[in-house]
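Hi R.,

Here's the input for the alpha-L-arabinofuranose complex you asked about:
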Amino acid sequence: MKKHFTWWGAAALATMALMAGCGSSDSGTSASGGGTSEGGSGKKIVVGFSQIGAESNWRKANTESIKSEAEKRGIELKFVDAQGKQEKQIQAIKNFIAQKVDVIAFAPVVETGWKSVLEEAKAAGIPVIVSDRRPDVPEDLYVTFIGSDFIEEGKMAGDWLKKKMNGKAVIAELTGTPGSAPANDRKKGFAEAIADSPDMKVVFSQTGDFQRTKGKEVMEALLKSPEGASINALYAHNDDMALGAIQAIEEAGKKPGKDIVIVSIDGIGDAFDAMIAGKMNCTVECNPLLGPPLFDAIAKALKGEEQPKRTVMKDGIFDESVAKAERPNRKY
Ligand code: AHR
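And here is the predicted structure with alpha-L-arabinofuranose in place:
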């Protein structure tokens, strides 16, 4: 894999040497443990993390993983929840720059619109690490990106559904946040997987914004409409929307998992419970436990070590036949 050693290394080494213990004012919540700093200088490292929000159980597990890893390593974490708004993420990053944090990390809510603020971080000599979703910016604007391959996840869901339905299905798609990398890529991957099967037809596609309540609302409306009657499969871009849709399907007097076969993405505990109850059929894993690799990357960036431009998380696929056996192993 391609390795990169950039100006970040030099900037980070200078930061470590000075280790000014910066960031006295806070733009969000701060969490820090009493352990040693990564730099070994006795001064705490300060990391600013701009999180998307708390839209799903996946996101909550992701936040928990990041906060607990910072605590474990004795790193001061300035954590800001953007409540799903890009402008709040941009403002948080600007605040981190003004506070002269040692490293900025963020999970971009959408793909576009980050170039200018990342150029500001670069000009300030602050390394940026991207978590979960990749932004559409030149690669020199961030040190490394850690996250799943969303196209592959969509393909796995499409391949599974094609097999389950013997190549013939009338499919409703619940998409994620418009403009987000997982919504774009999971749509693409799924479409590629079913492209060779003309009888696998996506007849409806609408956003549920990765939220359980919105997944339910969209499915409710669909089932009340004339096109809803023919749907026999649902592909949801995350488990929370699928779980909301399950409620709507039951309220409409249909059997989720039987009348409508359901495949979604994330692999959260609630999806396994739904499969065990016979209401859902398959989930493709998307690992949210990014805290450990993220802080490994931060430590490397601070030491000026080379690292790959991208680290892909390994994801599995679990259907109803393995749900019960797998349930005790689920960590989120
Ligand atoms: O970016 C990862 C996606 O964001 C998860 O699949 C979804 O649940 C979350 O909100």
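One thing worth noting: Confidence is low (pLDDT under 50) at residues 1-5, 13-28, 31-39.

Cheers,
M.
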